[in-house]
Write a structure and sequence with these properties.
Blueprint: E1 5-12, E2 17-26, E3 29-39, H1 46-64, E4 68-72, H2 80-99, E5 104-107, H3 109-117, H4 124-135, H5 145-162, H6 174-180
Parallel strand pairs: 1-4, 4-5
Antiparallel strand pairs: 1-2, 2-3
Helix pairs in contact: 1-2, 3-5, 4-5
Length: 187
């Protein structure tokens, strides 16, 4: 791996399903090294679930040595208990990164959608479609929602690190972004 190559582990935390996606990027070329979903529904103990999350995250870090971990921040929905469980899963993944001396960054779901599609209110399907185009792999129907979300977090972090981030607001233009990045458009 050259000095200009970035390796990022993305995590979509959850105590029933935890998505992970590991990417490697050099220049504008991004490839997926590994992605999947850790299924924990067969475990009844919260301690067992959190232990398994820690072990899997740490194993991914030890096997692939990413330069950083990017993780989706929990958001408040209708159920505060769900948010607390997500926070625990997130915390355990972060602890695994810290134990391996890997820096981490949190991203709000809206920020991830913004980075991938240019719209913070994009649907999961729109994000998955754009990821298919960016990564040149089949995401929808093959990886599952959690793995797809994890890849989205990793790609968002890559854009943040590389400065290849879609800017929005008064001083930016979606039209100019499209003009400068025609290969990132959906067919």
């Amino acid at each position: 791996m050259s000095k200009s190559t970035l390796r990022i582990l993305g995590i979509d935390p959850g105590t029933n399903f935890l998505g992970y996606g590991l990417i490697e990027a050099e220049g504008k070329h991004i490839r997926v090294l590994e992605s999947g979903t850790l299924t924990l529904t067969h475990l009844t103990s919260s301690t067992d679930k959190l232990s398994r999350i820690f072990e899997r995250t740490r194993s991914l870090i030890q096997n692939h040595r990413p330069g950083s971990l990017a993780i989706e921040a929990p958001f408040y929905g209708k159920n505060i208990q769900s948010m607390l469980k997500l926070g625990r899963a997130q915390g355990v993944s972060i602890a695994a990164a810290i134990s391996e001396q890997i820096p981490y960054t949190e991203y709000a779901p809206r920020r991830i959608k913004q980075a991938i599609t240019g719209k913070g209110g994009a649907t999961k399907d729109q994000v998955a479609a754009m990821l298919e185009h960016i990564l040149q792999i089949r995401v929808r129907g093959e990886l599952g929602e959690d793995a797809s979300d994890a890849l989205g977090v990793a790609v968002c972090h890559y854009y943040q690190l590389s400065g290849n981030v879609l800017q929005t607001g008064r001083n930016s233009s979606w039209a100019s972004f499209i003009q400068q990045n025609p290969k990132r458009l959906l067919p």
